[in-house]
Amino acid sequence: MALTIELGVAELAATRFAISPLSETVACLQQLAGRDRQAINLRWLRWARKELARKPLDLSWTRPLLVSRRVNWPEFLVPAPRNGVASIDDDLAALRRTTPRQLRASLHRVFGDDLGEAAALAARPAAGLRAIAAELREAHDRLIAPHWSRIRGVLDADIGHRARQLAAGGAAKLFTDLHPDLRWHEGVLMLGGPRWRADRVVDRGPGGLVLIPVVLGSCQVLIKKSTSTQTTVRYPARGAAAVWTARAQPPAAGVIRLLGRVRAELLETLRSPATTTDLAHALGVTPSAVSQHLRILRDSGLVARERSGRAVLYLTTALGEALLRPESGAWPHT
After folding, report:
1. Please, what is the Cα angle at 41 between 294 and 72, to 5 degrees?
2. What's the angle, vertex CA 240, arms to CA 238 and CA 241, rounded to 5?
3. Residue 6: in which H helix or E strand, if any?
4. Under DSSP, is residue 149 helix (H, G, I), strand (E, B) or coil?
5. Cβ neighbour number for residue 48 with a 10 Å cutoff
6. Residue (of 28, 22, 148) closest to 96 by Cα position
7. Residue 125 and residue 171: Cα distance in Å, rounded?
8. Phi and psi angles of residue 332, each rounded to the nearest 5 degrees, phi first
9. pLDDT above 60 (res 122)
10. Predicted confidence band at 263 (pLDDT cuts at 50, 70, 90)?
11. What is the torsion angle, in degrees rounded to the nearest 10, for the CA atoms of residue 133, residue 139, residue 141 and residue 143?
12. How far is 129 from 108, CA to CA, in rounded Å?
């Protein structure tokens, strides 16, 4: 199976990158719901669950659109940003500009004739969009804003890298580097499937594409097949795991005395899941030494491991976090 978009010279000239806080907000809610969850976001997920346990979000209008038996969701929730770096206010204003006709068409594309819980939105589109915008604004302020400076840094670095790829090898190199499942050739952009065989054609929005890197999202490329704004291509940002690797402070002296400096630093670093190779590079020790220290930390219940595809990721357990920060549950510091 392949998804194809006609993307000639004029459309390529209008194709651009954009950063969207609303895209990250929608992605983080999907991660919390278990949709396309990424292991690299486990540290954030643990923090977010604690935050929501303290005070749950009211997502009565938004949740039925994002979490249903369908794998798809209405495209108007992430409209194409008009500017390269949109604010959350810009994004939500664009969402509220969705016309009743566009909204109902989008709902029927996803849910068919049986709208279920989305029927109230179809009946009262203006009021529903205002309610959805308010819910997404609160979700952003509580779950994304505390980390936005770090997320934004990764997104900026990703776009800088893509610009260099475009300069070095043109559109073909840009899209191939964007994601292994993407190819561009002779005016056609393809996502997945046998090379150059069109199975499904995207009803592209006006102008070129808007390429949006995402940190808290799926490991897959997400393209809406029909949209009222410019067609967005949301893809996993390069270096997304780096968002969660920065340490708020060095391990406490008592933890270093108890575990030794290398094991204490491993425990602190593993607040963000990492492989033994990642840890060896980060701490400047050999992979074999890292493995020995990890074995001891695992036997002590301070570190756990999870498989993500072919990789084995290690992460600090709740017991390990309690040892590191017994006096504080307020991670992260911003």
Report:
1. 145
2. 125
3. strand 3-6
4. helix
5. 22
6. 22
7. 39
8. -95, 160
9. yes
10. very high
11. -150
12. 16
Instruction: Find all residues with CB under 8 Å of 274, minimum gap 6, and list them.
Output: 241, 245, 282, 313, 314, 315
Structure pTM? 0.72
* DSSP summary character for residue 220: S
Q: Are 212 and 190 in contact (CB under 8 A)?
A: no
What tokens were used for 292? 């020995």
* CA–CA separation, 164 and 138 (whole Å): 36
Tokens of 248: 């708020």
Mean pLDDT on 154-158: 83
Return d(Cα 154, Cα 164) in angstroms, integer.
16
**Tokens at residue 319, please?**
């017991």
Tell me how far apart the terminal alpha carbons of the chain are, to the nearest angstrom.
44
Give me the residues paired with residue 183 across strands. 190
In DSSP notation, 177-210 reads HH-TTEEEETTEEEESSSTT--SEE-B--SSS-E
CA atoms of 277 and 323, how far apart (whole Å)? 25
Of residues 56 and 147, more confidence is placed in 56
The residue type of 124 is: R
Residue 195 has pLDDT above 80, yes or no: no
Q: Are 31 and 244 in contact (CB under 8 A)?
A: no
pLDDT > 50? residue 196: no
Question: Which three-class secondary structure state does DSSP give residue 4?
Answer: strand
Strand partners, 172: none
Rounded CA separation 114/22 (Å): 27
The arithmetic mean of pLDDT across residues 277-285, rounded, is 77
Distance CA 174, CA 134 (A): 36
Token pair for 253: 């002296």
The DSSP-derived string for 275-324 is -HHHHHHHHT--HHHHHHHHHHHHHTTSEEEEEETTEEEEEE-HHHHHHH
